[in-house]
Here is the input.
Amino acid sequence: MYQDLLKLAEKTGAQAAALLMKRPPAFEISSKSTAIDIATQMDVAAEKFIVDAILAARPDDGIIGEEGTERPSKSGITWVIDPLDGTVNYVYGLPGWNVSIAAKDSEGSIVGVVTAPTINSTWTAMRGGGAFYNGYKISCNEPIELDRALISTGFQYDVANRFSQLEDLAKIVPIARDVRRNGAAAVDFCHVAMGAIDGFYESGLKEWDWAAGSLIALEAGAKFTQHGSAPLQTSIVAGASLHAQLCSILGMSE
Here is the structure.
């Protein structure tokens, strides 16, 4: 069963990514939680495409989509979809935006696919089956010390919450090898999974931001935890030794 779900997620993610690569001549911009938290007509079109494809194959499954699709599950399987993770990158023509699709049961994500066509990258995972990058098995960097680690993070769209995020960043910057801000959380999780970065943390992520990427990271040997509560719940992912160091420096228990 898991294999069938993974194949559906891979196929649908690739098709949605191809749709998104056909950039419109102009964007219709709408605001969500704040004026800088935006969606375009392409976010909406990609979500509709993904939802229609999944329900055509599995009409009893549930759906949770970033752009508002919400459908209860009759089968025990619910799909968690971010049709365009990294919308700001997409609007500005920057790389790394992606399509993130996960399927979950009562115990969490069981398959995850993140497709980032501008960097020719697809990451996949199935619970208990390992993690893969463009078909090749991957693993996170472990062990690594914080002073040799490349760390990625991101910032909230509600600027009032950025003050605490800057406080966290100020704890990391003097110690870590360096810090990156890539602009798409699902790819950050996947970069941890394949060792392209060593660790990632960010506060304020929603389920569709981490549902696929966290499974990929976990199946690649990383540790993923969440701390606190919304709107400042912090997600941390890294190999076990670095994860412990990040939790310690950010003042969060493992």
Q: What stands out?
A: Helices lie at 2-21, 41-57, 87-92, 162-172, 185-194, 207-219, 240-249.
